[in-house]
């Protein structure tokens, strides 16, 4: 699954340094334009305006200008578009937008959002792989898991139940929480998608390095958090349910 060619999204409405700093503040919240409910910004999906007035997904929340935020729920977005609620919500959110530009969006916006979230997640995996924070291969994952060296465990959608069960059990052993039922997250991506994204063959399972509470490796702990957040948002959008790993360290993902 790939995103369409990258489109630059921007707006004539410039952000002030203060606004940009506030947007990046840890724990800040944004309101979903469809439900009206506020959520942590990292759990929502930002929409931004291209120079031509097209509304496009901005999963990295980096495009300049005014943005609108929606909950990561594809079925809710599809229903809002079909019922006309989405268009009205956009008009309110972007009121006073770029002068002389008519806002528009594709009826295929839900698919665009899913593809953008997928690309955002797989790009994150690529960055963590280059940084040496990913563990690949069932045998190595099991070894690292039993030693308590994994901060996150993920499985492809077409991974076998037996394969997941074996690695989940090793993860619990390493975290010293046997009997808790904690397990890794099953992604909405199959092994072929993960293999292409990472440039490796047969990527069925993957772990993210990091020992819970290990102050000597804070970068690895942050890596697990970054991957978990991107994975949860993608899974939530596809399934319509809030997704998270059952983390052995008891931390929210």
UniProtKB/TrEMBL annotation:
Where along the sequence do coiled-coil regions lie?
none
Question: Where on the tree of life does the source sit, at the highest rank?
Answer: Bacteria
The record's region (Disordered) falls at 1-33
Per UniProt, residues of the YlxR domain are 30-92
Q: Where is the composition biased (Basic and acidic residues)?
A: 15-33
Task: List the Pfam families.
Answer: YlxR (PF04296)
- InterPro entries for the chain: Ribosomal_eL30-like_sf (IPR029064), YlxR (IPR037465), YlxR-like_sf (IPR035931), YlxR_dom (IPR007393)
Output this protein's name.
DUF448 domain-containing protein
């Amino acid at each position: 699954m790939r995103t369409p060619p990258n489109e630059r999204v921007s707006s004539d409405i410039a952000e002030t340094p203060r606004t940009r700093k506030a947007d990046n503040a840890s724990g800040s919240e944004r309101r979903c334009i469809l439900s009206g409910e506020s959520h942590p910004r990292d759990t929502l999906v930002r929409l931004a305006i291209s120079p031509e007035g097209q509304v496009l997904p901005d999963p990295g929340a980096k495009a300049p200008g005014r943005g609108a935020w929606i909950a990561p729920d594809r079925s809710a977005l599809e229903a809002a578009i079909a019922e006309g609620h989405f268009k009205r919500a956009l008009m309110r959110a972007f009121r006073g937008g770029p002068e002389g530009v008519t806002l528009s969006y594709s009826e295929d916006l839900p698919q665009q959002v899913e593809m953008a979230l997928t690309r955002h997640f797989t790009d994150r995996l690529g960055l963590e792989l280059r940084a040496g924070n990913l563990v690949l291969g069932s045998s190595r994952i099991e070894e690292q898991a039993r030693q308590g060296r994994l901060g996150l465990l993920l499985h492809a959608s077409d991974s076998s139940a037996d394969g997941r069960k074996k690695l989940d059990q090793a993860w619990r052993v390493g975290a010293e929480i046997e009997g808790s039922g904690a397990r890794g997250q099953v992604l909405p991506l199959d092994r072929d998608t993960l293999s292409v994204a990472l440039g490796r063959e047969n990527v069925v399972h993957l772990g993210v390095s990091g020992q819970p509470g290990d102050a000597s490796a804070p970068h690895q702990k942050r890596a697990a958090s970054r991957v978990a957040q991107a994975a949860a948002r993608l899974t939530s959008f596809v399934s319509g349910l809030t997704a998270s790993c059952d983390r052995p360290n008891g931390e929210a993902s």
